[in-house]
# Entry
Amino acid sequence: MRVSISNARGSALVLVLWVSFGLVSLAIYFGHGMSMELKAASNSEAGVQAEQAIEGAVRYVKYLLANLPSQGRLPEPDLYVTEAAEVGEAFFWITGRDPAAVDMTRPYFELIDESGKLNLNTALYTNLMELPFMTVELADAIIDWRDADDEPRSSGAESDVYLRYNPPMYAKNAPFESIEELRMLNGATEELLYGEDANGNGILDPNEDDGDASPPSDNADGRLDFGIMEYVTVWSREGNLQTNGEPRLILPALAGTQGSQAALTAIQGWFTTNLTEDRFNTLRPALTQATNLVDLYIRSGNTLDEFAEYDDVLTMSTNAIEGLVNVNTASAAVLNTLPGVEVNDAESLVAYRDTNPSALRSVAWITEVLGQDVARRLGGLITDKGFQYMADISAVGRGGRGYRRSRMVFDISEDHPKIVHRRDDSRSGWALGVETREALLALRGQQ
Ligand SMILES: [Ca+2]
Ligand SMILES: [Ca+2]
Ligand SMILES: [Ca+2]
Ligand SMILES: [Ca+2]
# Structure
């Protein structure tokens, strides 16, 4: 991709950005003479341009998510526009997370799958306690905040604690609606929530690796220690539609005694139309008994490829399911919160994903890493798809000025992508790393 900008007169300067293989390299060329008008261009005008670029990014992301080639799966990040995308005189970037974390000082660009995180509304205490740096006090406070009662857990906090706050408030006693609610909880500190990644961009910025020389406080060890915010979500929710828009078919064992025969008949109908009646007959005992998709895979005796021919049609619930963890996108730290998954298992899962990309067409592949017993117990908690994506969009206007940043979550679990969360993060600091900043500053100095 090659992007060029010029000012309205076309001669004052041209900035050319080359983007290849996920890395940005910037080269700046200056035309003849400087435009005094450009020098006077106000930050507020550039800010408006940056805001318009963010709106352009929103339309682009909606279009991308409405046209995914595979339901619940993003394309590789180099197949969509995420870096220095041009909107008039402005540019936008979508900052993500480098799954390989090769160079922690360079930003990585992609949409972030919220299903790769632990859901604050469905996580058990034991899941929460597996998160890095989680405290007993905060884990209890999270559960007290969302549970309906006013009985504090042993290290928790309910309204009697929050009414002593200034200003006083009640415990919510209802589900979290955003992860920022964590900031209000008893036992939550900036350090615990944000760790060293004060600006939440997933990379080690200079001020995050200089000890106490500049905020935040960090240990200057050249590694980025994330806070709890990095690993949690409130948005993960799996819709219940097949790729063709038809409802998925519930596993008979989960359809209740009244519904199980009808559920089996519906599955038989699907196999007869889409695969073969023989195939259904062979799978009938497994289909009748299975209580989750990993369980079905194990009972089926199928290969991963055979299983992937029909798994997407089947579901554990006729309603949307909240809080399933996407084993295809979750980080090792999040995988480690799943029951029975130890630190080394989580790392093995990530390593398997890297070396066996073609095996990831269903959740069944975890059996290859974890063995049947652990995998089967996880089956009810995991998915291989994502339906909510975070876009962390940064933009600049003319001359690299007017930096704006907005984080939003798009939900595609129903028919059209919609924004379910939006937050202006312009004040949380520059998110695009040192190289882009220097290139834009050099550009500004020449105007
Ligand atoms: Ca409560
Ligand atoms: Ca950072
Ligand atoms: Ca610091
Ligand atoms: Ca560190």
The pocket of calcium ion (ligand 3) is lined by residues 207-208, 210-211, 213-218 (CB under 6 Å). Residues 72 and 386 are 5 Å apart (CA to CA). Residues 43-66 form the longest helix (24 residues).
